[in-house]
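Q: Convert this sequence to structure tokens.
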Amino acid sequence: MENLDHNNESGSNPKRTRIEVDVANLPTDPDQIRRHYLQNKPCQPVDHDFPQSQFGKTKRQFNPVWFKDYPSWLEYSITKDAAYCLFCYLLRPDIGDQGGGDSFVTEGFRNWKKKEKLQNHVGDHNSAHNIAQRKLDCICFLQRQGLAFRGHDESKDSNNQGNFLELLRFLANHNEEIDKAVLENAPEYHQMTSPDIQKEIANVAAVETINAIIKDIGDSLFAIIVDESHDMSTKEQMAIALRYVDKLGHVNERFLGITHVNNTSAVTLKSAIEEVFNKHSLSISRLRGQGYDGASNMRGELNGLKTLILKDNPSAYYVHCFAHQLQLTLVAIAKNHIQIATFFNLVAKVFNIVGASCKRHDILHEKRNAEVIEALKNNDISTGRGLNQEMSLKRPGDTRWSSHYGALVNIIHMFSSVIDVIETIIEDGLDSDQRAEANILIGLLQTFEFVFDLHLMKGVLGISNELSQALQRKDQDIVNAMKLVDISKQRLQVMRDDGWNSLLEEVSAFCEKNNIDVPDMDDFYQPRPRRKAQNMKNSHHYQVELFYTVIDMQLQKLNSRFENSELLLCVACLNPDNLFSAFNKEKLIRLAQFYPSDFSTVQVSFLDNQLETYIHDMRSSEEFSALKGIGQLAEKMVEMKKNVSYSLVYSLVTLALILPVTTATVERAFLAMNIIKN
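A:
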């Protein structure tokens, strides 16, 4: 008996191996046979000299091009000069000879003049062939996910235990780095519960993932990103991620793990980091950056950690998380401007009262849907893919101000529906206190002041939201982040200089649509509640005390929070934008002096000359003329082998890329941990 040669997956060798099989000792488990065939893929000897057969007056032969047409299932037997279907051979249901199914399973297909028979064999959606393929897809999915084949039964006698063991064997056979002890102790798995086995599989996958990360880092320099949180059992957890540049010049941020710490003192945190580093053969001497969440409740402890690491390695420069600095600028406005603070308290009450029950949510959606339908009938809004999607009032996070932006946008779009829900509460509330609260709230919402604050903060938060989203990209670099901050400052300044009239028009149109009185800007301002008269016109209050003041506060906080250090100013000179217009040789030499471990005095002298040649080459090369950011610069230098020609300059580029921008990666890890534990 001959077996199709599945040990040669590509089928490129015309010399096929003949395998003699002892029929008396064939495996008794058909699943073992199926597993072997699946792992080795279809036998497709593309370079074989296919023999010709006589068909009437014409000689024909198997066409290897058919392998490209049907790469996943078409097989060819050299001995039998016949084609077969791998899917149907393994799992074809017994539903008759649909599309010549039997010929592709038993005697083989040899009618070379009728290629259409191949497509006929595939058939429609419910053909025997496609049913078999779907079964195999399900099996592969379950194996990859480590899921049970037969429901939730994971008892000792269940076949599902065997499936987990087979998955472990499969992993071990295909990756030598997996801990062999898993298989050596395989019998013990019969005494384990399903969660135990799944945990072991997850641990094996985690070990392999971390090994791949450490291998990818190699001898490269890297930065560390750290954040802390406590889990549901109130245990303090520290998440660690590494940022580095790989051999292709790509910036990577990779989550390394979460480790438990007994307390949050700086000494304990540093000790935990050293333990993780020792475990994975990493050295603090290779550290070139630190990134922490300076807005957390551990700010003092993390500042202490920063200092301890800098004592061991002065080149491990600290960068305050850009995203959290941005959050703090917005918090300052919300806390320090009394009217804006009052506005956000009012917004919180809207979410509390409208979202207090499922019934109110349903009423809100019904009102909103009716409003959209009516607007569509009147051609007030456009139709199209992605437009007029269902909205909801999702409570904004306490510190995630990007969620506040989304909340304000939704209030604007659902304003009339929100008012309808509150009116319903006034009429049908459970008690007098609830109805009274709703009555006060609706009176405050239907005022020009609330609408003005709503649109003003939507504009300010909109600019900050785009910056926040851009800062949290894993491949974001420090130079581009600084540029994005400058762009946000410019947009705020443009809004201050030229945005008053358009904002006033937008607010007035909104008030007119929702039957809200618009005050005359030349009248005197009447505050609520009435305070001592200040003889101030409405125009002065809304334009000066609100519009200008809020934007100025934001600009001032952005300037103070993102004040660039000498290090960052030097790093900015690497920016390739506009044909390297930011290039400054003296500052780049100064940048090298920030890293004495990487640039000796002699190398700094060499760098002086290398920079001259480098900038002439870059500005005269078409390949480097349209680059945006030092991330693209690093990748292009590797692609064009310039990282070898200008090795010292490339070292500066990688050091700049290593500096962390935000702590978003470790925060995502904590979010994932909460999902898993829940």
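The first helix runs from residue 30 to 40.
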